[in-house]
Specification:
Layout (H helix, E strand, L loop, with lengths): L1 H8 L24 E3 L2 H9 L8 E3 H11 L10 H11 L18 H23 L8
Length: 139
């Protein structure tokens, strides 16, 4: 997918050696969080990978919940499992249906760029809300 490789390069990501791999049974059982671009990824994480459904999200869904529906964190939600549990409890609170990251395969380089922009936006929100030092209560 030359379009994907070119678009990723614009974001400082080298996809030239990236290869998809098969998810094996039980591979995600001990994972704190699984994030997929489309529903089939999330279903696979749960049904094949073995992660509980409450810890499996679509990328845009998780970013939307973290951006809009969990401010502020409730008392005691200072660990990753607690934050994910709270995000799960709030995932349908906004009345939005989860949406996938659009698949740009077969489309123009500009569509790949738009897709990467959306991915970068979502990853930035997830990083800030779940993993940043400030989000974990440290100043």
């Amino acid at each position: 997918m030359p379009g994907a490789v070119r678009a990723a390069a614009g974001f400082g990501i080298d996809l030239s050696r990236h290869r998809a791999r098969t998810l094996h049974a039980g591979e995600l059982v001990g994972s704190a969080l699984a994030v997929g671009f489309e529903p089939a990824h999330v279903v696979g994480a749960v049904q094949t990978g073995g992660i509980p459904a409450e810890r499996a999200f679509l990328l845009v869904e998780l970013a939307d919940v973290l951006e809009v529906d969990v401010l502020p964190w409730p008392a005691g939600a200072n660990t990753l499992p607690a934050k994910i549990a709270h995000a799960n409890a709030r995932r349908f609170a906004g009345g939005r249906l989860p949406r996938s990251v659009p698949d740009p395969v077969g489309k123009s380089d500009r569509e790949f760029e738009r897709t990467y922009e959306e991915i970068a936006r979502c990853v930035g929100i997830i990083d800030m809300r779940l993993f940043s030092v400030a989000a974990n209560g440290a100043e």
